[in-house]
């Protein structure tokens, strides 16, 4: 469990009614490492498998730092405000002028509580308002029904299947594609 203190939040911090989203910090490594032991996270994302502590350290110290440099590929750790517990991560990956792809995972204990939907909406609002995005894309390996249901609930429009599109540990998978355009989020 991470304590959320009352100091000035780092740049890029977002808040919702129940959540605090902020760039990963060194003290988040143990919680990220523990969360990524979940076979479902390893099954549906590109995190390494097996997931080692060094992978969590690389995520925090290299990927997150580089991602926030120029805010081209920002990532957030998502915490429940009431407990300070890590409930997931979110990221926006630059995909070209005016567009980015959202990615996320949720801890096993936090699934089904609406945290990821709340965080996705916050990250999309930030992307449209702060980055001036016109389009946010979502992809998931075909079969990841929980992620698809969440994207639809967040207002994304399904666009189809991209065959042999997503690489995961050297294998290519069919991927669902959906998008959310600037101005559409208010309808979700």
TrEMBL record:
Pfam families xref list: Acetyltransf_3
Domain N-acetyltransferase: 19-182
Keywords: Transferase
Domain of life: Bacteria
A molecular function GO annotation: protein N-terminal-serine acetyltransferase activity
InterPro entries from the UniProt entry: Acyl_CoA_acyltransferase, GNAT_dom, Ribosomal_N-acetyltransferase
Record GO cellular component, one term: cytoplasm
Name of the protein described by the UniProt record: GNAT family N-acetyltransferase
Source taxonomy: Bacteria, Bacillati, Actinomycetota, Actinomycetes, Kitasatosporales
């Amino acid at each position: 469990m991470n304590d959320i203190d009352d100091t000035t939040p780092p740049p890029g911090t977002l808040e919702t009614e129940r959540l605090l989203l902020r760039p990963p910090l060194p003290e988040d490594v143990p919680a990220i490492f523990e969360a990524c032991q979940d076979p479902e996270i390893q099954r549906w994302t590109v995190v390494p498998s097996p997931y080692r502590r060094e992978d969590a350290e690389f995520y925090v110290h290299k990927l997150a730092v580089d991602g926030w440099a120029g805010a081209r590929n920002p990532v957030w750790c998502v915490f429940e405000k009431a407990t300070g517990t890590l409930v997931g991560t979110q990221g926006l990956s630059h995909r070209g002028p005016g567009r980015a792809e959202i990615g996320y995972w949720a801890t096993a204990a936090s699934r089904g509580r609406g945290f990821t939907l709340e965080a996705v909406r916050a990250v999309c609002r930030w992307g449209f308002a702060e980055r001036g995005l016109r389009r946010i894309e979502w992809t998931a390996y075909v079969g990841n029904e929980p992620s698809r249901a969440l994207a639809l609930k967040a207002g994304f429009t399904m666009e189809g299947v991209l065959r042999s599109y997503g690489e995961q540990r050297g294998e290519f998978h069919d991927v669902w594609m959906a998008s959310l355009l600037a101005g559409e989020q208010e309808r979700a």
